[in-house]
Each structure stands twice: as C-alpha cells, then as structure tokens.
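Open question from group meeting: does this chain pack into something compact, or does most of it stay loose? Before anyone orders reagents, we agreed to write out a predicted structure and look at it together. Recording both the input and the output here so the notebook holds the full record.
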Amino acid sequence: MSIRHNHRWSRYAVLAAGAASLAMMAAAGWAQTTSQAPVDLADPRMGTAPLDNQKLIGNAPPPGEPVYNGQTTPAARLPHSSVEVAPINNNIALSYPNGVAVPYYYTNPTMIGFSAGGGSSYGGRTEPTISPVVGDWSPAPAYREAYYDKSKEVASPGYYSVDLDTFKTRVELTAAQWAGLMRFTFPASDRSNVLINFPAHGGSIEVVGDRMVRGFSTDKRAIDGNYFVAEFSKPFSELGTFRKSPGDDKGWGIGNSDVEPGQRAMSGEWAGSYVTFHTKAGEQVLMKIAHGTSYAQAEARLKDELPG
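Structure tokens returned:
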C-alpha cells in the first residue's frame, strides 16, 4: 500500500472511530436524560383516527360520509407473529361507520369486545369475539356496549389496556407467538360474564368442564385454522349458549336469538357461549386462547406458550 493510501486509510479509521465515539456519547446522553427507550415512544393507535385537517382532505369525502383513517389496529402483537389481541369498538355486523369493515375506530366512544384471532384484524375477520359484561347482556349481533375512558386507554408494542366504565371492569391484552392472553379485573358481582361468539357465518361452540370454551368456525377463509380453545384461570359459576334463531331474517339487523342457560353446546349463525363468575372487587380472571387446524393443535399451542 502506498504512503498516500496509508494516509487516507488512517484518516478513514480516525473518522470511523470518531463517529463511533459520538454514537456512544449520544446513547449515554439519552440514557442520562430520559428513562424511556425508543420503543417506549411507539404508539400503536397511530392511524386509527380520521384525518381532520381540511387542507389535507380537501373536499373529500362527500357530505355525510365519514373520513377514512389509516385502518390500523392498536392490537397487542409480537413481530412476525400469528396473533393479534385487539379491541373491537365497531359493530361491523350492523354498519360500517367509517366506510370499511375495520374493527376499531379511535373516535368511537363504546367498546363491543375483543378478539385474539390469527392474522390481521383488518376487515374484522378475526374471531371469536370475546366480550366481558357485568350484569345484563345481549347476544350478538346486538352486543351490549360499554363506554370506556379514552384518557386511560393504553396501547404500546405488545400490550393494550382499557377501562370499561359501564361495567367497572379493566381489560388488558397481550400476545405470544401463537396464543393470546386477556386479563379482566372485575368489580364485586355475581354476574361477571364473558361472552365468546362467532360472527354471522357461525359454527359450533362447546363449554368443556368448568374452565374451557372451544369452538369450530364454518368460515372457509379462516386465517390460522378453524378451531379455537380458550381456558380460564377461575372455574365458571354458571354457563350457557346462544345463537341467532334458525329461520330468522337473513339480512342485517338484530333479529331473534335462542339463549339456552345451562346448555354446553350450540351450533348455527352467531353461535356463542357465556360463562359467569362470582367475583370480589378487583378480582382478576385470566383467559388464554389459541387457534389451530384442530383442537389438539390449539391446546398444544396454549400448553407450549402459556403453560401457567
């Protein structure tokens, strides 16, 4: 190597070392000035609210139509995972309040339930819907909705929580690679319920023992297998099933429902189950759920990822 090349190489080495030192100093300065890591600045709610700057949206959309948003979800999810554990505040079975069938729209004031289906929640295709309800409840699609405190809604990478003021219940969501985990902090009540139901196409649902609900969806487009298994940390006090009444109106609308207290199995449109807990104030009930191409695969995923 010539002297000139040697000199140039040395100059590059000095510049590289200087850049590395500056990076280390910057990282040290960040650590000294804030307790936040860069990941703490991420907000999964970005893209869930409509644009409201007239300069950006011009004259669109036409009067009376909602403004589209980024159609994203604040779901809890790991990178490259199969599961999104997500809030649902759009009753897309009855209307498309923001133009397309996305299950979450930031400005909506009430919550319907939550999902932990495989794949993306875009298009509202994740299932089943899980709805914690204290006191009276309504079968799907006429869910009993809960007002929630927007100021206490938390969304961060891998975690979501919300306070359902109507039911005095806090819901927390997180996700593993193949399974979802939900934690419900209930008030004192003998009617702390969790409803689990399929959407319109329906399927079959079954309550097994005093801690498990499982089901099979008839949806041919199921993303991560048509089977699901959900297990609870506390035994049920009561249970039952419901569905949309056979022969009822096939169009949109609430229609009539068959509700069967004490029954463990149900098939049909909007097939679902409800389980009831007697809870003390602040008592927490956990529910873990996984999907698969069989009940055995779904149970194996729960055992492998969430054994406790």
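Observations to bring back to the group:
The first strand starts at residue 86 and ends at 88.
Confidence is low (pLDDT under 50) at residues 1-23.
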